[in-house]
Amino acid sequence: MSSDRYCAALVAIALCFDGIANAQAQPTPLLIHKGIFVPIELAAPVSSESAQNGDRFPIRTFEPVVSEGTTLIPVGAVGEGEVIHAAKARGSGMPGELIVAVRFVRCGNTEIPIGHLQFSDSGRDQTMAWIIQRSTFTHPGQVKGSATQLPAGTRGIAKVRADVEITAEHACQPGTIEPK
Fold first, then answer.
1. In 27-43, which positions are buried (b, 16+ CB within 10 angstroms) versus exposed (e)?
2. Is the dihedral of CA 37, 43, 46, 51 positive or negative?
3. Sign of the CA dihedral 117, 122, 124, 129?
4. For the chain, which end, N or C, has fewer CB atoms within 10 Å of the first or last residue's CB respectively?
5. Where does the secretion signal sit in this chain (predicted)?
6. What is the reported pLDDT for 60?
C-alpha cells in the first residue's frame, strides 16, 4: 500500500471515529407533544378596570408536566398570557369584561406554544354564583357594575398547541418573573 493511500485511509478512519464521537455527544432530544396538558397559574393579577387589549401578563406552571417518567416542564416554568378583550364596569350594573388567553411557557430559549385555557375552582362549577354576584343592583342607572378580577394564583389548565422538540441543554428550568 502506498503512503498516500495509507494516509488517506487513516484520515477516513479518524473522520469516522470523530463522527461517531460527536453523534454520541449530542444530547437526546425530548419531544413535547401537541395536546399535552400544562397546569398554569397567573403570576400577577389581571383586572378589567386596568387591563387593555393586548396587555401581557406573567404565568407559571404550578405542577410539573411529566411524560413516561421524564419531567418535560418543571414546576415554576414561566411564560406569558395576553388580554384579548377588556372593558371597564358600566352603569346599570353592567360588570367589567375580561377575556384572556395563554400564549407560551418558556423552556430555555424555546417558547412552547400553549392555549385552550380552562380555569378551575377545585372542580366546582361557579358560573351561577358569578352571574348572581355580578347582576345584583337596586335601580337601573344608580349602580355601577363591579370589575372582573383574576387574582394572582388563579389556576387553570392549558394545552400545548404544537409538537416542540427540546434538548437537555435547553431543558426547562424554573424561572423568575420579571416585574413590569
1. eeebebeeebebbbbbb
2. negative
3. negative
4. N
5. 1-23
6. 95
For the chain, how long is the longest CA-to-CA vector? 105
Mean per-residue pLDDT pooled into runs of 10, the chain (180 residues): 60 56 63 93 93 95 88 91 90 82 90 89 43 40 68 93 79 56
177-to-43, 61, 87, 119, 172 alpha-carbon distances in Å: 8, 12, 26, 21, 15
| 27-170 fold | Lipocalin (2.40.128)
Distance of CA 108 to the CA centre of its chain: 13
Q: Domain locations in the chain?
A: 27-170
The three state secondary structure string of 55-69 is CEEEEEECCCEEECC
pLDDT of the residue at 31: 87
Amino acid at 35: G
> C-alpha cell of 113?
406554544
pLDDT value, residue 24? 54
